Amino acid sequence: GCGHNLLGAGAMAAAIGLKHYLTQTGKSGTVILYGCPGEEGVASKAYMAREGLWYGLDAALTWHPGDSSEVATGSTNSCIQMIYTFHGLASQASTAPERGRSALDAVELMNVGVQFLREHMPRDARVHYSILDAGGVSPNVVQHQASVLYMIRSNFVKDCMALHQRVDKIAQGAALMTDTTIERRFVDGLSDTVCNHALEQVLYDNFSQLGVPPCTAEEHAFMEALSATYQGRDVPGGVGAENDPAFAEKVKAMQTSHFNDFLMPLYQGPAFNAGSTDVGDVSYQCPTAQIHVALWPNHVPCHSWQVVSCNKTPMAHKATVHAGKVLCAAAIDLLEQPALLEAAKAEFRQRTAGGYTCPIPPDAVPAPLEL
User: Fold this and answer.
1) pLDDT tens for residues 225-263?
2) How confident is the model over 307-331, as pLDDT tens digits?
3) Element (H, E) at 170
4) Is it the case that residue 196 has pLDDT exceeding 70?
5) Which of 254, 274, 282, 369 stands the most exposed, by the fewest C-beta atoms within 10 Å?
6) Rounded CA gap, 298 and 263, in Å?
7) Is 319:223 a contact under the CB 8 Å cutoff?
């Protein structure tokens, strides 16, 4: 829904470019390209982090499409997803209701319990849910099975894991109240992102030198047409605009443009992106940074059909190749200038002094999410 079909190609372009650089210059270095399937809905990087696969890297660089070209700064929300399936006993709701044990009632009671929990959550936390299986289509039957998917978010992974435990207890209470049993299925878990200003600066310097991908008049018209189909007008945020005049100028330009064909200034103030990414778990094990390359129209939300329609276009191909160039150029700087890498490592050690606890349970196995 947000261009993950492009991530691997951009990373591969960077890896291939860096390999050619090492071959042509005779310099030494190790380039590792990680294949990361199912970033959304499985969180493969977090599973890799559970196995310690990111430890020992000097740096990890990646990218993501967006509605603006920028170096990603600040952090992201930690997230845990669980499916709760309740099992009861079916019966005829009119003639023998006392024999039934309603799994649907258990789902309802769990949802009510979580609503009361909201008052007592950290203010940055979010809990979302979706009923996957209401048990059936007939109200004349006590539903013997029902399931609900919960997504739990918080700014920091330790807080997210603590909130997850409370939601678990509510599910157990709902099963107790309805005399049903509960089956819990772990879907995924993601940590918040540990930013690294030193790496972000290296990415920004190279992004500034390379500029942004060119956008034709036809492509601008396509973006304008897409933007016009969304009436909600998702207005770009202005975090940092009050402190940085150059940043404020670009944010102002974003309010009226249909496509942001410019590079945003680097802003490294405190900020949280409400979304979640498994890049966060990488950032707890090695210095990590990423860029966004503009590919989507302005004023439309991520994961909308307007965004999806952009991800297999010539613009998408240009953005992917350009991302590879920026990442490759930044990696070359890190190889050529060891002081840059040492600064990134020192910052990483300082920011991760509290250690890392992976949100993926030891017995969890990645599996496709079949809803």
Assistant:
1) 998 898 765 555 555 555 667 777 777 777 778 888 999
2) 999 999 999 999 999 999 999 999 9
3) helix 157-178
4) yes
5) 274
6) 14
7) no
Domain 78-190: which CATH number of 3.40.640.10, 2.30.110.10, 3.20.20.10, 3.30.70.360: 3.30.70.360
Task: Tell me which DSSP letter residue 101 carries.
Answer: B
Asked if residue 106 has pLDDT above 70, the reply is yes
Instruction: List, for residues 332-341, the tens digit of each pLDDT value.
Output: 999 999 999 9
CATH of domain 4-75+194-351: 3.40.630.10
pTM: 0.89
Q: SS3 sequence, 180-248? A: CEEEEEEEEEECCCCCCHHHHHHHHHHHHHHCCCCCCHHHHHHHHHHHHCCCCCCCCCCCCCCCCHHHH
DSSP β-bridge partners for residue 86: 146, 182
Which of 130, 139, 138, 89 is closest to 107 using CA atoms?
Answer: 130
Contact in structure between 148 and 131 (CB atoms under 8 Å): yes
Nearest to 154, CA basis, from 276, 50, 43, 49: 276
Ordered by start, the domain boundaries in the chain are: 4-75+194-351, 78-190
Burial of 24 (C-beta count, 10 Å sphere; 0-12/13-18/19+): exposed
Neighbour tally for 327: CB within 10 Å: 26
